């Protein structure tokens, strides 16, 4: 394949939206209330829509019998390159919100830059996606503030979730070899450039939510290289079950 | 959680130029959350361009038991409708 770096780069973006979408989809019919259930699954569908655009493009680059579905459903765990943050479970609603918030702030800053990409397909996808992600960010930030500045119990749970997931934030700013090639060509986004803005924005919301900003300097990594937490296997077995059991099944 | 949230009525304007119409109701802790919930519950299939929410308790409703005195007197007064005029053919949209 000619464009291996571009292909890898696209997977690096789209695996995040795919796995986070899958996680949110788990709440379908289980959300804490009808309203939040629909909100979370709406966000899930937005993310799947974005994932499809990325994978359709990736499938075209790869050629052969590659399709958006084969990329989504027929890889093995080590071939998924999403960050560890998005695969963390829905332990309670505070964890769902914290995971979403920590990703949304990054996602928005990322898409702002991707709109400037020299690759017209990627900039077009970013253009469309950023409106959706603006809303995601508004939704998750509002909930962080509500829960953080809410009751004693909601504050404790929100703080727990932020403290627990904080260790996965640094990986958002790691770059793979393919990322570096793409940055050099003006196609990829240099994530390091907005790392400070990211923590500034996150900290502002946490302060508004009357939550403490974690001081931990110990961070987890591995997802971008295909080395995942123990949760990933369960997500994939759930997500891939239909295609593995009934190969080439369609609706 | 939800039991403590008040009920809100949702009104959606589906197109510019049309009036807001009652779409339904939902639970939310405050007005801001009610707007976001309304956006997700009622406009996710592109139904609207504007949303109003109002807490249900602020709506004063007529009592169905009074329907007789409120509405029945109007039933036999057809002359209150402008139906006795011949509209010329050239006049559209009447």
Keywords for this entry:
heterodimer, A: 251 residues, mainly alpha, Ferritin, globular, B: 94 residues, alpha+beta, Ubiquitin-like (UB roll), three-stranded antiparallel β-sheet, 2 helices, 3 strands, 22% strand, flat
Tell me the layout of helices and strands.
The complex is a heterodimer of chains A (251) and B (94).
Chain A: H1 4-25, H2 34-62, H3 68-73, H4 93-114, H5 120-148, H6 152-165, H7 177-184, H8 195-208, H9 231-245
Helix pairs in contact in A: 1-2, 1-7, 2-5, 4-5, 4-6, 4-8, 5-6
Chain B: E1 7-13, E2 20-27, H1 31-42, E3 50-55, H2 67-71
The N- and C-terminal alpha carbons of chain B lie at a distance of 51 Å
What string gives the helices and strands of chain A in order?
Answer: HHHHHHHHH
How far apart are the first and last residues' alpha carbons of chain A, in Å?
30 Å
At the fourth level of CATH, the homologous superfamily of the domain at 2-60 in chain B is Phenylacetic acid degradation B
Instruction: Write down the CATH class of chain A.
Output: Mainly Alpha
User: At the third CATH level, what is the topology name of chain A?
Assistant: Ferritin
Shape summary of chain B: flat
| Spans of at least 5 consecutive residues with low confidence of chain B | none
Structural class of chain A, by secondary structure, is: mainly alpha
The shape of chain A is: globular
């Amino acid at each position: 394949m000619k464009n291996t770096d571009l292909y890898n780069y696209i997977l690096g973006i789209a695996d995040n939206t795919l796995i986070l979408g899958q996680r949110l989809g788990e709440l379908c019919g289980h959300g804490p209330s009808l309203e939040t259930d629909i909100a979370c699954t709406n966000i899930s569908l937005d993310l799947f829509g974005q994932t499809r655009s990325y994978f359709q493009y990736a499938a075209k680059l790869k050629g052969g019998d590659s399709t958006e579905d084969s990329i989504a459903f027929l890889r093995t765990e080590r071939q998924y390159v999403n960050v560890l943050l998005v695969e963390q479970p829905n332990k309670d609603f505070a964890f769902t919100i914290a995971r979403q918030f920590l990703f949304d702030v990054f996602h928005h800053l990322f898409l702002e830059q991707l709109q400037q990409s020299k690759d017209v397909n990627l900039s077009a996808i970013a253009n469309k996606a950023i409106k959706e992600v603006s809303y995601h960010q508004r939704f998750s930030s509002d909930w962080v503030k509500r829960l953080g500045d809410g009751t004693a119990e909601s504050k404790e749970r929100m703080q727990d979730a932020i403290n627990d997931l904080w260790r996965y934030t640094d990986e958002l700013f790691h770059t793979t070899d393919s990322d570096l090639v793409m940055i050099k060509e003006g196609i990829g986004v240099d994530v390091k450039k907005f790392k400070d803005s990211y923590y500034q924005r996150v900290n502002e919301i946490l302060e508004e939510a009357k939550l403490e900003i974690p001081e931990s300097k110990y961070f987890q990594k591995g997802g971008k290289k295909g080395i995942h937490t123990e949760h990933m296997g369960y997500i994939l077995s759930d997500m891939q079950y239909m295609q593995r059991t009934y190969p080439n099944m369609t609706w | 959680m939800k039991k403590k949230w008040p009920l809100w009525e949702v009104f959606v304007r589906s197109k510019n130029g049309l009036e807001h119409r009652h779409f339904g109701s939902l639970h939310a802790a405050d007005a801001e959350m009610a707007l976001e919930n309304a956006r997700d519950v009622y406009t996710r299939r592109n139904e609207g361009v504007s949303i109003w929410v109002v807490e249900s308790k602020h709506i004063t409703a007529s009592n169905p038991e009074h329907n007789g005195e409120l509405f029945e007197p109007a039933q036999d007064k057809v002359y209150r409708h402008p139906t006795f005029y011949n509209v010329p053919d050239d006049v559209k949209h009447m």
